[in-house]
């Protein structure tokens, strides 16, 4: 191994890959600072992008930033470097989620092979086909989660029904909360400002058949010329979970989530995420009830997997907007 430090241009490129990660309502709640003098990269939560009504404990922000950390690891490994991550390094600053040191490595981590999938990964709100996902692929995705210290529980048919009932209850609760609807409206559709949030074209069609848990971001707003479609009747769902439920576990969950999503993308699968039930504490725990089929102790994300059309990417902020180079650091 070499003690040579990564230059700012390389780190800038890796951060460019990091910010392709998914985030709640595509709010992109990350802010990076790199000090070439020490070779250390810091990741903070951008609290201007918090959602106090739908993410009151900032769990979703931690998961989103954890996904960005995994992309960073993959990008550095693809370039022949190892990213050594220290989570939550300063108890006095809860906004500081991780410090990262880069070390040139003769044998980068195997996740480097997932690098091509970073730019191809999408969150799809389109219907998937009824084609079943092969058991071997699902087993591999579960293994991907385990390799990051998390678990991925693929739900059986009766378990799917129970989880869909929980998601439907979350949808009803959302409709009864003007604060939640206003928060979602800020980050979606006409509320989108610049390269962030979920634009109308990414809403996907309105569901008029099928049972796939696809969130309707219109939240009662009219969306002219939006089409409707029948979604899959037997969706393939999985719950990603962690053994504990602390901020460090939320970061871990984000890294595991992105590893699963990149592996699924590399395997030719379409994916979408649903955090709706997880945003309600009383409903979130129903996903960990044995009768709901979620075997993980603490559910962190509901995933939908299958085969669907390629969809366009959601917008991303420029790297210069999320990365500061501290030449004096």
> Which stretches are poorly predicted, pLDDT < 50 over at least 5 residues?
292-296
How many β-strands, per DSSP?
Answer: 11
| Rg estimate, integer Å | 19 Å
Percent range of helical residues: 25-40%
Judged by helices, strands and strand pairing, the structural class is alpha+beta
- The fraction of residues assigned to DSSP E strands is 15-25%
By oligomeric state, this entry counts as: single chain
Q: Estimate the global geometry from the Cα principal axes.
A: globular
Order of strands in the sheet with most strands = 3-4-2-1-11
Number of helices: 9
> How far apart lie the N and C ends?
24 Å
Which sheet architecture does the biggest sheet show? Answer: 5 strands, mixed
Compute the average pLDDT.
93
Q: What is the chain-wise order of helices and strands?
A: HEEHEEHHEHHEEEHEHEHE
Record the SSE blueprint:
Layout: H1 8-18, E1 30-35, E2 40-45, H2 59-78, E3 81-87, E4 96-104, H3 115-118, H4 135-147, E5 151-154, H5 157-175, H6 178-187, E6 206-209, E7 228-230, E8 236-242, H7 247-266, E9 270-274, H8 281-284, E10 298-306, H9 319-322, E11 323-325
Parallel strand pairs: 1-11, 6-7
Antiparallel strand pairs: 1-2, 2-4, 3-4, 5-8, 8-10, 9-10
């Amino acid at each position: 191994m070499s003690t040579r430090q990564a230059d700012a241009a390389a780190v800038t490129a890796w951060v460019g890959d990091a910010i392709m990660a998914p985030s709640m309502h595509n709010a992109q709640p990350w802010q990076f600072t790199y000090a070439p003098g020490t070779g250390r990269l810091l990741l903070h939560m951008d609290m201007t992008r918090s959602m106090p009504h739908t993410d009151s404990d900032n769990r979703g922000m931690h998961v989103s930033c954890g996904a960005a950390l995994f992309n960073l690891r993959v990008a550095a490994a693809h370039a022949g470097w190892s990213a050594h991550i220290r989570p939550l390094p300063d108890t006095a600053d809860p906004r500081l989620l991780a410090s990262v040191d880069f070390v040139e490595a003769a044998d980068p981590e195997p996740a480097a092979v997932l690098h091509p999938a970073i730019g191809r990964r999408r969150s799809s709100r389109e219907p998937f086909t009824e084609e079943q996902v092969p058991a071997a692929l699902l087993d591999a995705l579960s293994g991907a989660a385990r390799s990051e210290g998390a678990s991925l529980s693929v739900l059986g048919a009766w378990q799917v029904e129970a989880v869909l009932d929980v998601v439907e209850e979350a949808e009803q609760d959302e409709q009864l909360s003007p604060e939640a609807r206003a928060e979602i409206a800020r980050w979606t559709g006409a509320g989108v400002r610049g390269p962030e949030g979920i634009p109308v074209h990414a809403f996907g069609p309105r569901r008029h058949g099928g049972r796939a848990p696809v969130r309707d971001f219109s939240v009662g707003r009219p969306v002219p010329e939006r089409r409707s479609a029948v979604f899959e009747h037997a969706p393939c769902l999985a719950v990603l979970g962690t053994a504990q439920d602390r901020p460090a576990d939320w970061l871990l969950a984000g890294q595991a989530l992105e590893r699963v999503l990149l592996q699924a993308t590399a395997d030719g699968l379409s994916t979408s995420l649903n955090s709706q039930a997880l945003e309600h504490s009383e409903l979130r725990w129903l996903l960990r009830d044995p009768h709901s089929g979620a075997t993980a102790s603490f559910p962190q994300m509901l995933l939908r997997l299958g085969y669907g059309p390629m969809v366009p990417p959601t917008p991303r902020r420029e790297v210069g907007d999320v990365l500061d180079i501290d030449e004096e650091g």
